[in-house]
């Protein structure tokens, strides 16, 4: 077939800071999806977009082209209102795991299409796959069945749902183009709009461990996505939340699953519990669901019941022993004092280097790899006490993981903790 455009022309246009036309955007997304545009060509275009940006029209058209590359899902057969949440990613951000069954326990239906790890941030699917038997890939019919039976499903987007995003997502992960606001916004919203949920809450992270470290840019991203959702008829709102220090006390796949189960059992780190409850209330409000309060559902065991039901429905064993890394290395405090800073990015990269993340498309991750934090900013620690424990199956990985941790944590006698508030901004329109 004779193509209406050449990829090199579109790459050059964005390289030279020109706007892409609607037809150019439609063609390049479609052509890449069917293989007429090569990975190296799309990589160059993604880098040009990261460096030179897109305006609101381009982002909207790019998002719609990705939606139109596949099918749209429909949950009208359910007797519950659908609501979903998406996080832009962070270190130790396991919130989806306790959140989905929690919202289900309060009367919502949560069709949660999740992704793999991206750069230094963990992926919900990678975490859940550490549970023996659990399946990430479900047919549309299986998704509906799990939703009807359990109120929540967490799975990979099917091949027919925004297939353009599936290819672009993997490519961004290995081409240093993850941080581009247009690409983040279109990736998230193409999947969420195609997913067919009636309401959506976005958790946009900011701080050193987020893709968007600047709160002002995080707010820009949040507003961009809220507008994309509303334009598509999805009741969308956003919270801008802190990612200057890791969430919880773990960063890694099985490690974060174990911590999430603690939260569902009524315990767990206070920041994870607080954000889970905040987001659950926001989701229920967005969907117009009233009744049970999420804080109560954590305490009375009903959220745990929904978790167990959801895991079993996808082939997993909620009682199985989670994988444990073969090797551990303890990092101790060099001096006594208050922990004043803990760089989320460096913790995340350390977990990545230990094997919790991937450096190329399709690479397997280690289920047991990651970092356990024995103390967090605000805690007092004595010299020689355990500060971090590094987990990996391959001890040769310790050296590079320790290298990135140099200067990651500050301990000062009588020091003051400076950190972002957990929720910086709430965006409704």
CATH structural class of the largest domain: Alpha Beta
CATH topology of the largest domain: Pyrimidine Nucleoside Phosphorylase, Chain A, domain 2
What is the count of structural domains? 3
| Strand line-up of the largest beta sheet | 1-4-5-13
Query: What is the strand content?
Result: 15-25%
Mind telling me which CATH architecture of the largest domain this is?
Answer: 3-Layer(aba) Sandwich
CA radius of gyration: 21 Å
Distance between the ends? 44 Å
**What is the structural class?**
alpha/beta
CATH superfamily of the largest domain: Nucleoside phosphorylase/phosphoribosyltransferase catalytic domain
What is the residue-mean pLDDT, rounded to a whole number?
A: 95
Count of helical regions: 16
Largest sheet: 4 strands, mixed
Number of distinct beta strands: 13
The SSE string, one letter per element, is HHHHEHEHHEHHEHEEHHHHEEHEEEHEE
**Could you name the ranges where pLDDT drops below 50 across 5 or more consecutive residues?**
none
Molecular shape: globular
Kindly state the percentage of residues in helix. 40-55%
